[in-house]
Amino acid sequence: MTRSITLDVNGVTRTAEVEPRDLLVYVLRDQLDLTGTHVGCDTSQCGACTVHMDGRAVKSCTVLALQAEGHAITTIEGLTRDGGLHPLQQAFWEKHGLQCGFCTPGMIMTAADLLATNPKPTEAEIRHALAGNLCRCTGYQNIVAAIQAAAAAR
Amino acid sequence: MATLFGSGIKRREDPRLITGRATYTDDVKLPGLLYAAVLRSTYAHAKLGKVDVAKAKKAPGVVAVFTGADVKDKLNTVPCAWNVPNCDLKVPPHPPLAIDRVRYVGDGVAMVVAGSRAAARDALDLIDVDYDALDVVVDPEKATQKGAPELHTEVPGNVAFTWKVAGGDAAKAFAEAPVTVEQRIVQNRLLPTAMEPRAACASYNPGTGQLTLWITSQNPHIHRFLLSVMTKLPEHKIHVIAPEVGGGFGSKIPGYADEALVSFASMQLGRPVKWTEDRSENYKATIHGRDHVEYVAMCGTKDGQITGLRTKVYAGLGGYASTAAPGVPTILHGLMYSGPYTIPNIDGTVYGVYTTTTPVDAYRGAGRPEATFLLERMIDLYARKIGMDPVDVRRKNLIPKDKFPYTVATGITYDSGNYQGALDKALQMFDYKKFRAEQAKARKAGRYLGVGVTTYCEICGLGPSQVAGAVGFGGGLYDSAIVRVYPTGVVRAYIGGKPHGQGEETTFAQIVADEFGIPVENVDVVAGDTEATPQGWGTYGSRTTAVCGSAVKVAAQRVKDKAKKIAAHLLEASEADLEWQDGKFAVKGSPDKGKTFGELALMANVAWNLPPGVEPGLEATAFFDPSNFVYPFGTHICTVDVDPETGEVKILRYIAVDDCGPQINPMIVDGQVHGGVIQGLGEALQEMVVYDEDGQLLTGTMMDYAVPKASQMPKVETAHTVTPSPVNPLGVKGVGETGTIASVPTLVNAVCDALAPLGVSHIDKPLTPARVWAAIQEARRGGGGGAG
User: With a cut of 50, which residues of chain A have pLDDT below it?
Assistant: First the structure.
């Protein structure tokens, strides 16, 4: 049994037909064609699916699509709306904060939330904030450096 | 123009990755797409009775359900492609879906194809399977013991192979040596955990007979070959595309049943079929790494000269022999027993053992981390026994820099090295004497500081194809590139390798742009599509830059040679009178009257005025087959502070000095080192696959398997020495795996050093607080550690 929901995704009103059990991440990926949000686990550990709901980072694998009804969702594709790069995207590029790139959208969305609430985090605060985002390639060092650089550039 | 080789320019891969515009396999969507889900055995070992799919077939949205019986005559078994010779290797058949027996939790039993992911998953629950449980064995040593349950009737005692390596006279060395140390070492089984799980999407066109497969692959040409074997489709009817690949670490080398099954389903149904594993499926159905039980002995003189090494290794293979599995604990492990040292007498025996567990195959480092770990661990035990500083023991035994190429006792020849140079550099960065003084002071205050120093070398840049053939590798190990110049002077390089995070789209463009004197933006690198790229052997074994990068270099040189002929013709000069300067060919002495690369590209492609005998167009193909492997090396140092009350290990500093020859892009090299070191520290500190006595995977999700987090890991201080390799035109060596090779013993030796005053001599990794604490308690009771 499905139901139609309406939500704001990256500033655009979108509708989707969802089952009660459908997770937000699959609605974003399969129905709304926003495949920048990734699925790296099934237990809410890896954070590759992180998006913003009303400006705060959430793991979209742990949000039912129904819960997102009427809320504003921002995905990596909509982090900036002017076609340019967000300072965090720029910093991840500059600092080699990614290798395979699979965790990167989630990392950037989490980092954006961090900097929104804590504009000048310490290294320890950054590392703590990334506890729910796993990266297997970089060893985190350049991810931390990128977030520090983005914070410094603000 | 400044040279691009050696410049840490930003990666051109990144814009699509940081904006969510990259296409990974699960992002592929095709008209009429169906979704597959695989029912996997919940038993580690059982006779498989009736698999009743009647209800599942009737479930909403379900299009088809296939069992082992359905595919048995349609698909071939999953091949093992590294048939190591002279070890009596036994590879029993590995059916794509189980037929009469399951051999690990995760073994495929049936596949459902449905109109949505959810419908396919739902239908799995409707399949009734009769299992008749059999005894299980998860430990590779126990699996060889009398009375252990046997997995395959063709393999009595579960021993798939007995492989030996010997050089010198180890028996004599041990008989005569004044000092011998022995240790049982367990190399914990690991989950590769590429962040992108495996996925495959097959689309068969009955009209053309062509199958297109999108797959998360490190080696699309190998997958094309293996898929041809499994599906019985001719190889030229198979088009493999590895789009963006989200990490591999070895787990995306093997051929798996899953891609053959989706291909089969697409061929049967005439519609595209996609399968994507979730993480808990990945943890049981994708290969694992390591899993050795080792008995190691080292002997030497009282003043630190190592004279012999002896090993007996039980290497777990899991339920079946995966694609490269037999080669990992043998060729890539046993041949490296000499490490960077002049150990004259070596005697190793490796048993490959089937156990009722997920198959084990190459995982970042693949055999060399295990070799380096046992060697470095033994050296520290030996140093402690003779009362000598472990750094001094290492220095005394390192191969001198003027002895290269150097042939070690295992019979392989190292290309180049300056091991003392890397050690010296690391010790300059780290004041060893000062630390020892601090350590002594801290010990008096009840604090346990420790230092581990690893000097390593490793074999990579796989490798000469002739050697590949001689050691039973079922393919070549050359690699390839087509360098194609467009009329407007822009360039595409089509490569046989398949980078999946290592940045070769950038570094190979640097090679080409340097060769042609053009902006790096004018060069694109294309990988991962078997229709576009020449036959290659993939990205693993830290081979892509050394082998495929060399093919790029050679192809670019060929292009330039042709451009020179055209330039000579246009300038009415002899080729011998031309020189290449500032991006153009000009007659020596008249640099302003030259022909730029762009002009020559146009003239070659329009072909209005070519020299006699020169064909139109400007492109070249190169297949580069190296004359030897490459042997990068280095020194890693780690210091730790161990809390004796809780067993907690705090890393104080981590220094990595690596020598991978000249670096094309130092930023990328450092990124490889960071990632490798942290992955190794995960192995050393917290990662371990746990099976219970029933063969159930207890670490089956990311909640239970401790992938390192940012908050748990240190910063890595990197530095480099530069010793070119003579075996390729770039002089480069690999650096993708050095981190996982060097960091594991470095950390463990640091912790054992910290706890030396308490009498702890060895702790099996991972060094979780519980294990460290237990080792301290045991040592206090009079044992020597060894907890775990």
Answer: none
User: Is there a domain that residue B187 lies in?
Assistant: no
List pLDDT tens digits, range B238-297.
Answer: 999 999 999 999 999 999 999 999 999 999 999 999 999 999 999 999 999 999 999 999
Residue of chain A with shortest Cα separation from B10? A94
Q: At B222, which CATH number?
A: 3.90.1170.50
DSSP 8-class letter at A102? S
Contact in structure between B491 and B99 (CB atoms under 8 Å): no
Whether the CB-CB separation of B370 and B293 falls below 8 Å is answered with: no
Residues of A within 8 A of B679 (CB-CB) are 136, 139
Mean pLDDT of B216-229: 98
- Nearest chain B residue to A23 by CA distance is B118
The per-residue pLDDT for B782 is 81
pLDDT at B784: 64
pLDDT tens string B457-467: 999 999 899 99
Q: What is the DSSP string of B169-209?
A: -HHHHHHH-SEEEEEEEEE--B----SSPPEEEEEEETTTT
Helix (H, G, I), strand (E, B) or coil at B492: strand
Q: Are residues B633 and B583 in the same domain?
A: no
B266: CB partners within 8 A, 6+ apart = B202, B203, B204, B211, B272, B273
Domain boundaries defined on chain A: 3-78, 87-153
Q: Is residue B7 part of a domain?
A: no
CA distance B677 to chain A (A): 7
What amino acid occupies position B557? Q
Domain A3-78 sits in CATH at 3.10.20.30
Say if residue B709's pLDDT is above 80: yes
Token pair 């046993």 in the structure block, residue: B334
Parallel/antiparallel/unpaired status of strands B649-659 and B717-720: parallel
Omega of the bond prior to B766 within 30 degrees of 0, cis?
Answer: yes
Residues of chain B positioned with their CB less than 8 A from the CB of A136:
193-195, 247, 249, 675, 679, 707
Number of domain units in chain B: 3
Q: Is the pLDDT of residue B493 over 70?
A: yes
Q: Are residues B645 and B718 in the same domain?
A: yes
pLDDT of residue B785: 57
> Are B419 and B488 in a shared domain?
no
Q: Is residue B511 a contact partner of residue B5, using CB atoms and an 8 Å limit?
A: yes
SS3 category, B97 = coil
Query: Are A70 and A130 a contacting pair, CB within 8 Å?
Result: no
Q: Find residue B455's DSSP bridge partners.
A: B635
From the CB of residue B591, how many other CB atoms can be counted at a distance below 10 Å?
A: 12
Give the pTM.
Answer: 0.98
Beta-bridge mates of residue B338: none
Say if residue B90's pLDDT is above 80.
Answer: yes
Q: Are residues B201 and B335 in the same domain?
A: no
Percent share of chain B, pLDDT over 70: 99
Q: Give CA separation, A153 vs A82, A87, A115, A150, B370, in Å.
A: 19, 8, 11, 5, 44
Residue B453: inside a domain, yes or no?
A: yes
State the angle between helix axes of B368-386 and B738-754 in degrees (0 to 180), rounded to the nearest 10: 30
> Residue B786: pLDDT above 60?
no
Cβ atoms of residues B775 and B786 within 8 Å: yes
pLDDT at A124 (0 to 100):
98
Helix (H) or strand (E) holding B311: strand B306-318
CB atoms closer than 10 angstroms to residue B441: 11
Of A102, A139, A143, the CB nearest to B246: A102
What would be the CATH architecture of the domain defined by A87-153?
Orthogonal Bundle (1.10)
Local confidence band at B2 (pLDDT 50, 70, 90 cut-offs): low
pLDDT of residue B366: 98
Range of the domain at B39: 25-134+195-247+252-285
pLDDT at B4 over 70: yes
Write out chain B residues lying below 8 Å of A42, CB-based: 278-280, 701
